[in-house]
From TrEMBL:
Annotated TM spans: 6-27, 48-66, 91-110, 131-148, 168-187, 194-211, 226-257
Protein name: STAS domain-containing protein
Originating gene: Acey_s0306.g1988
Keyword Transmembrane helix: yes
Keywords assigned by UniProt, alphabetized: Membrane, Transmembrane, Transmembrane helix
PROSITE patterns xrefs: STAS (PS50801)
Chief location category: membrane
Originating organism: Ancylostoma ceylanicum
GO annotation terms (biological process): transmembrane transport
GO cellular component terms given for this protein: membrane
Length: 373
């Protein structure tokens, strides 16, 4: 993708570049400065895209951009509505493999776009409902010569930027599209293609600005940062479909890496409310399921902690003497002035407590490791 862009710079149409820059500035400045002012008086934003399309058609017809400046235009728009027909079932053995791959990719696109806008507008998505929707529409559309059903990144962004909030917009957009196909097609044939490209690029501006989230991803999770980077770069330098497949495989690989090298934290009693853990006790938290792939790491970490302790002061768990937990300590809330000096020791000597709250499951080797420890 980037390679094709670089190679085509020398053959770029200067007139098309000027029109594109002007169109992008018109839409971006309009949304930045005009829309906020209009919202004070009207809840309906001005149709900047429609205005740009009308201006583009007028300029194309007036200046004859296609013939004089070799500007690519929409040209012929097919008119009429195709008649439904039963799919040719004899092609199923030849298309089943590619069909499964296309179905998975289309569903992933739908879910990724749905989660993207759900996060932005703070609502929830139902994966099962989306699965049914894609399946039903795929079955219905199989009787017509159409593309596979899926999410359109550019069209979804255009609808979102236009103020669409519910699925009712599909009724209006479909009605408008049908009107264009049956009636208004000839009027849009002179429209320069670069005008349509401007609308798509400006609509994707919010997606491009997600690069600002990278510092936050780096602070929260290095794995999420790497997944975002791989998905972005593979999509830019290769293709959307290949980028999606590579990013999914890479995300699954990070899950394996997280399972094999989980986060292992050792917390001293000073960092824990003293009425919960007695003095001289270390709390270890293994933030992963304990299974055959990371059981060696689990044992090694505990062995290292034991080895780092003072052998003279450390007492093994069998030598530890447990005492009853005072009721006033077990039931009373934490007090700011509570210190180790006024809390009775519940355990003499030193010991290690393994916090298993983050272990979703433990296999047989993990159970043997816990017994060994």
């Amino acid at each position: 993708m980037v390679r094709d862009l670089i190679l085509s710079i020398g053959s770029a149409n200067i007139t098309a570049v000027i029109i594109s820059v002007a169109g992008i500035l018109f839409l971006d400045l309009g949304r930045t400065y005009i829309n906020p002012r209009v919202k004070r008086f009207s809840p309906v934003p001005p149709p900047l895209e429609l205005i740009l399309v009308i201006i583009g058609v007028i300029l194309s017809v007036t200046l004859d951009l296609h013939e004089r400046y070799h500007i690519a235009i929409v040209n012929t728009i097919p008119r009429g509505f195709p008649m439904p027909a039963v799919p040719n079932t004899s092609l199923v053995p030849h298309l089943i493999t590619d069909g499964i791959a296309i179905a998975v990719i289309c569903y992933m696109f739908v879910m990724s776009m749905g989660k993207l806008f759900a996060k932005k507008h703070k609502y929830k998505t139902d994966a099962t409902q989306e699965f049914y929707a894609v399946g039903i529409m795929s079955i219905a559309s199989s009787f017509f010569p159409v593309y596979p059903v899926g999410a359109s990144l550019s069209r979804s962004s255009v609808c979102e930027m236009s103020g669409a909030n519910t699925q009712l917009y599909t009724i209006f957009s479909s009605t408008l599209l049908l009107t264009v196909i049956l009636v208004l097609g000839p009027f849009l044939e002179p429209l320069p293609m670069c005008i349509l490209a401007c609308i798509v690029i400006v609509s994707l501006k919010s997606l491009f600005l997600q690069v600002k989230e990278l510092p936050r991803y780096w602070r929260i999770s290095k794995y999420d940062f790497a997944i975002w980077l791989v998905a972005c770069l593979t999509t830019i330098f290769m293709d959307v479909t290949k980028g999606l497949i590579i990013s999914i495989v890479f995300a699954l690989l990070t899950i394996v890496l997280r399972e094999q090298w989980p986060k292992f934290t050792a917390t001293h009693v000073d960092e824990i409310p003293p009425q919960h853990v007695p003095e001289g006790v270390s709390v270890l938290k293994f933030e992963s399921p304990l299974h055959f792939a990371n059981v060696t790491l689990f044992i090694d970490k505990i062995s290292d902690l034991i080895a780092s302790s003072n052998a003279e002061d450390f007492s093994s768990p069998p030598d530890c003497e447990l005492g009853p937990v005072p009721k006033d300590i077990a039931s009373s809330p934490q007090k700011p002035g509570l210190t180790n000096s006024n809390v009775p020791a519940l355990l003499s000597g030193k010991a290690i407590i393994v916090d298993c709250s983050a272990m979703a499951y433990v296999d047989s080797m993990g159970l043997d490791a816990l017994k060994e420890v």
